[in-house]
Amino acid sequence: MAPKSEANRPTLEAVAARAGVSKSSVSRVINGASTVAPSIREVVLRAVRELGYVPHAAARHLATRRTDAVALVVSDPPKGLVSDDPMFSAVVRQASRKLEAAGKQVVLMLAGSEESRARVSQYVAAGHVDGVMLVSMHGADSLPATLARKGLPVVSLGRTNPAVPHAENDNPGGAALAVHHLLGQGRRRIATITGPLDMIASQERLTAYTDVMRDTGHRSIVALGDFTRVSGADAMRQLLQDDPRLDAVFAANDLMAIGALRTLRESGRRVPDDVAVIGFDDIEAARYTSPALTTIHSPMTDWATATVDLLLGLFDGGPDAPVLLPANLVVRESA
């Protein structure tokens, strides 16, 4: 059937007449107002279905001052952490699906440079979106605070600025689980490979590691990484040079743990016989390493869903309390 012309489209007046209610009642139902009685909502929606009424998007946006669009802003640093890390692709995919299911148009924006951050800020300030979801923000990044001052709902996947509501994984709890597991296996010279220390998740995982090592009377052995495979391999190589008797390593994400496994294999160390390895995130590749990687399960789809739910709740005046998701140890062959 050919689409109806503008002249033949059912009007708001026609829906009101069919439902036996006022135009203002129809408008409130169409625009999602929560003050409409269920009985009125039911008859209006029935009339909408029977007539095939489709709200005029431009008029609806003028009436509600909503665009039904959300900016999904990803900080992609020069090394391409976000684009290379399957965790982030899973997060972006799930967040997009969830937002689209809620009737929101997703505008994906990269904010990896000063110029791109300025463009994001200008785009949001111009009223093109109803809200913003931030992904992979670094602690020194001014964008979260800048966007929070725009007066629109802004949420973050992970903790960034105190002014921005967030959902996050239990980074300290997960890291502590990993270190206690290694200690429980009799490991004593346990090192860690950190993520970028300008990211709060990296800071929390490192702090939890050092706290457990100190509280159990063991020395901390720290190497710096940046959440990439290459940095994990390089850090593991440096750790072995500094302490050849190392018997375990906790890497702050799975990609670095996978890099560490390669270095250990090249150096002739057996995993887990000589050196046990634990990662963090539980990406799909962790199941297929050799040996399979013991890791902290970080529920990516749940994390993305919780962040989107937080944003959708803010649209309706809901709470901005942070959401904390539990971390669980997944024991495989590497530790």
Automatic annotation (TrEMBL):
Keywords: DNA-binding, Transcription, Transcription regulation. SMART domains: HTH_LACI (SM00354). Residues 10-64 form the HTH lacI-type domain. PANTHER family: HTH-TYPE TRANSCRIPTIONAL REGULATOR GALS, LACI-RELATED TRANSCRIPTIONAL REPRESSOR. It comes from Nonomuraea antimicrobica. SUPFAM superfamilies: lambda repressor-like DNA-binding domains (SSF47413), Periplasmic binding protein-like I (SSF53822). The keyword Transcription applies. This is LacI family DNA-binding transcriptional regulator. Transmembrane segments: none annotated. GO terms for molecular function: DNA binding. It comes from the Bacteria. Gene3D superfamilies: 3.40.50.2300, lambda repressor-like DNA-binding domains (1.10.260.40).
